[in-house]
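Q: Hi! First time doing this. I have a protein sequence and I read that you can turn it into a structure. Is that right? Here it is:
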Amino acid sequence: MPELPEVETIKRGLEKNIIGKQIADFYCDWPKMINYSLKEYKAKIKGLKIQAINRRAKMLILNLSQSWNILIHLKMTGQLVYGSKTKCLVGGHPIKDGYDCLPNKFTHATFTFSDQSHLYFNDVRKFGWLRLFTDQGLEQELDSLNLGPEPLTNDFSFDYFKNKLKQKQNSKIKQFLMEPKNIVGIGNIYSDEVCFYAKVKPTRLVKNLKPKEIELLYKGIKKILQDSIKLQGTTFSNYRNAEGETGEFMKKLKVYGRAGEKCKICNAEIKKIKIGGRTASFCPKCQK
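A: Yes, that's right. Below is the predicted 3D structure, encoded as C-alpha cells:
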C-alpha cells in the first residue's frame, strides 16, 4: 500500500499538472469505488474545476469548485496515472503494464478534462475508492476516522509521542507505528525502517522501550519520511524518463523487502517474521 511519502509525492506531481483543469466527463465501471450512482456522481462533478490537492494520512483530497471534494484512497493496489499528449505520470502501487494502452483492464475510473488529458484510477484488486463529499461532509468523514496527527507537522510533538506510548504499553512497537489513530501515514515499509533506525526489534513491547530508544524512534519517523519524500517515495516515477516504477528511496531501504540479504551495517542476514498478520523485516544483530 502506498504510504505517506508515496501519496505526498503523487500529490505534488498532480499539483503541477491538474490544478485548474475542468472536468468534462467521468466514468467508473466498479460501483463500489464511488459513493453515488455513476449518473449522479458524473452530474455533480461535470464542469467543476480542480482548485487544490491536499493529503490527509494516506488519502488524497481533490478540492473542486462549488464546495465539492473527492477523497481518494489507493488502498493495497491502487494507482493514479495522469496522461496528456506529451506526458504520462504514474503514482501508486506498481502494476506491470498498468500504464500501457490506457484505459486498460486495470482502469476502473477515468476523469476526462476539457483539454482531453485524463486522470486514470487503476486498481488490480479494486479495493480503492473515490468518494465525493461537500465541504461539510468531508469534514465529518475525516472526523469520524479519528486519525492521529500528521508526523511531519508540529502536532506530532515529542511530548505527544511519549504520552501516546504510555497509553499503549502492551503494544508491539511496529503495530503502534502502523496504527493511524496514533500516527498517520506509516505502514509496513516505514515502520520497518524506523525500527531499524532506532535499533529496536519490531516485536518489542512499548513498555520495554528505553528513553533513548523512544527518542530515536521519534527522530527516525521524521527523518525517514522526509528523506523518502525528497527521493520521491518508493513507488512514483515519470516513466518516460525512468525505467521501472520505483522511486529513488527504494535504493536506500535498510531492511524492508531485503529478507535473506545481508545487513548493510553488520552483514548479518535480514530476517522476516509475521506480526499481527503483517510481515516485519529486521536485522537480528543490529536490532534488540
